[in-house]
Design a protein that fits this description.
Elements: H1 3-17, E1 22-33, E2 40-50, E3 60-64, H2 70-76, E4 82-85, E5 100-103, H3 105-119, H4 122-131
Parallel strand pairs: 1-4, 4-5
Antiparallel strand pairs: 1-2, 2-3
Length: 132
């Protein structure tokens, strides 16, 4: 498959994913070799996918040199819907522009885990059982 065909395929997948009302988003740091420097620097791989209960099972990966929230806003614009994400500040400007934040269950679970590890809270234990 040549580069032009691949780009058309990626663009079509982006368009299809952005038609969903629920999307998951996350950013993951990756080490990237700096050309000619022999050193690595931190870049980010942003991921976007439809909700878990959607029939379409696909993920779009978007490489960026930084974690600036503008990357997510540029990728998702003009999409409006429910965004499942962590509490990263870079997403926050979208929440005043028609995007609804849906908290990430894995991040919520971590808070209950931490609470249970420190205090053996029965409520935290119940929450962990429920989330799992």
């Amino acid at each position: 498959m040549c580069g032009v065909q691949l780009q058309l395929l990626v663009d079509a997948l982006n368009e299809k994913i952005l038609k969903h009302r629920v999307l998951h988003a996350d950013e993951t740091p990756i080490a990237v070799l700096s050309p000619g420097m022999g050193k690595r620097h931190r870049a980010y791989l942003w991921t976007y996918c439809p909700g878990a209960f959607e029939p379409m099972k696909a993920v779009i990966y978007d490489f960026a040199e930084s974690r600036a929230g503008g990357h997510a806003r540029a990728f998702l614009n003009p999409w409006r819907g429910q965004l499942v994400c962590d509490d990263f500040a870079g997403y926050r400007p979208m929440f005043t522009q028609g995007v609804t934040k849906v908290g990430c269950p894995a991040n919520a679970r971590q808070k209950f885990y931490d609470l249970h590890a420190v205090s053996r809270s029965q409520i935290a234990e119940d929450a962990l059982r429920y989330i799992s």
